[in-house]
Amino acid sequence: MELITIFENDSSNRLLAVRYDGNECDEFDRLFEEWNDVEYLYNFLELNKEDLNDAFLRDISIEEAAAELLSEADLMEEQLYHRFENGELNNLFVPLRNGDYIFELQESKGKVKTRLISRPKIRIYAIRIATNVFIITGGAIKLTQTMQDRAHTQLELKKLKQVKTWLKENGIEFPEDLNDLQYE
After folding, report:
1. Measured between alpha carbons, how far is 167 from 32 in angstroms, rounded to an integer?
2. How many domains in the chain?
3. Least confident window among 21-25, 59-63, 161-165, 178-182
4. Domain of life, per the record (predicted)?
5. Does residue 126 belong to any structural domain of this protein?
6. Domain with 56 in it
């Protein structure tokens, strides 16, 4: 596992992503490649079509759902960049479990914040090192109420825990600890 820099101004404003052993790209690139791939979205939605109407709060076709997810993915990428540029990543990412307090190596989730989407489905999962320092561990299209409801979101929970353990084992708890790592 290695950490790849996505955005960085200084040690107090960074977005990194994990590249897991055996993978060619980091999680940031993987997610946006998948979420912008119409064929991937159609296949995913076909596999999860029993969840669509509840997730979108109405009867919806796979074609309509794919179009909405493409728009949401674009908006997520724009918001990530905008929040980073303004030193506000902490306004996009919140604790993974609603009601949790902020603490070191916080498991976090990021989702689009807009009035245009009543129930965002695109999620980016990350470990919070400090206020504006996050490490992306993965992401998902979340169509169910909880992450435990589907295998693809259960995998994201495992990845969060795996990365958190790796960070602890490598003595990474604060932004300055990242300076000692070799990453791109």
Report:
1. 24
2. 1
3. 178-182
4. Bacteria
5. yes
6. 2-175
